[in-house]
Amino acid sequence: MKRLVFLLLLLLPGLAPAAAQQLPTAREFLPFVCAMENIRGTDCKVAKDYPNQATGEVCNLSVASSGLIGGRFISSAENLVLVPYGSDCEPRATGFGGAMLFEKQQRGYAFKGYYPGITTGGGECRVVAGGPRLRDKLICLTSFMQGGYAEMSVAQMVFTQDFGNRMFITVDPLITASSSEGALGTERVECKRKYWFTAFDRLRAGPDAQSVVLDVAMVPPDVIKRYCGIGVVEMTTRESITKTFTLDIESRRFR
Predict the structure, then answer these.
(1) CA atoms of 89 and 57, how far apart (whole Å)
(2) C-alpha angle with apex 68: 124 to 200, nearest 5 degrees?
(3) 200 burial level (CB within 10 Å; 0-12, 13-18, 19+)
(4) Within 10 A of 41 (CB to CB), how many other CB atoms are there?
(5) Handedness of CA 66, 200, 144, 79 (dihedral sign)
(6) Pairing assessment for the beta strands 6-10 and 118-128 based on DSSP bridges
(7) Per-residue pLDDT for the chain (255 aa), expressed as one digit of tens each?
(8) pTM here?
(9) What DSSP element (H or E) covers 235?
(10) 73 with 26: CB under 8 angstroms?
């Protein structure tokens, strides 16, 4: 099963009111996971209890100066903060890093864990406000490329908590895109699909609390219909258009 590289980038406008409060700098979170003698600027030489250290490997990490994401993503928890980091212990499949999760408490923050592969770097995220009694939603563009083939999705980062107060982040794709242009120079389209999306871009706030707006590159439906005759399984084309759509988060459909 392919491992996706989830790249997240905070967009400041339109944050939920709870998430818009002033957050500490990424550097201020380092002492939670690193002894003071191992901290050099935004670098940590030996991260405490890093997952790979169970095998005896010593893992470093570096925090980014920007890209912190905050919001009330779990109803039973206070505000949560994702702090991006890079580590030499992480492979390309996880984007060479991940995110640390912290929970805001009365007397500061509590470290909740490392999440390799959840990184702020080259994609986009939008925190959708949930309202006074509802959790916020973290909606992101995710991307993965191998051999010139690119896959993207608009996904919700779902935060859950078990009875032991352990927190988990799972990625729930709402809609996907696939492109073969980097490998073949053309888009290869499955004829059974009425719509073929090839890329997503410019994720931004929607007209209401249940939507986001984004630019969608796609093979025009009339082109698919033209080339996909009876018995044709797939087709290739260089024809593509870009349109702006509103995505309804609950129905997972474009309006």
Answers:
(1) 8
(2) 5
(3) buried
(4) 9
(5) positive
(6) parallel
(7) 334 444 443 333 333 344 445 788 889 999 999 999 999 999 999 999 998 766 778 999 999 877 788 898 987 666 899 998 999 999 888 888 889 999 998 888 999 999 998 865 445 788 898 776 778 999 999 888 878 889 999 999 999 988 888 899 998 999 999 999 888 999 999 998 889 999 999 999 999 889 999 999 999 999 998 888 777 888 889 999 999 999 999 999 998
(8) 0.82
(9) strand 234-237
(10) no
Q: What residue type is 49 in one-letter code?
A: D
- CA-closest candidate to residue 95, choices 86, 104, 107, 83: 86
Sign of the dihedral defined by the CA atoms of residues 15, 130, 115, 31, in that order: positive
H helices, E strands: number in the chain:
3, 18
- Paired tokens of 224: 């698919």
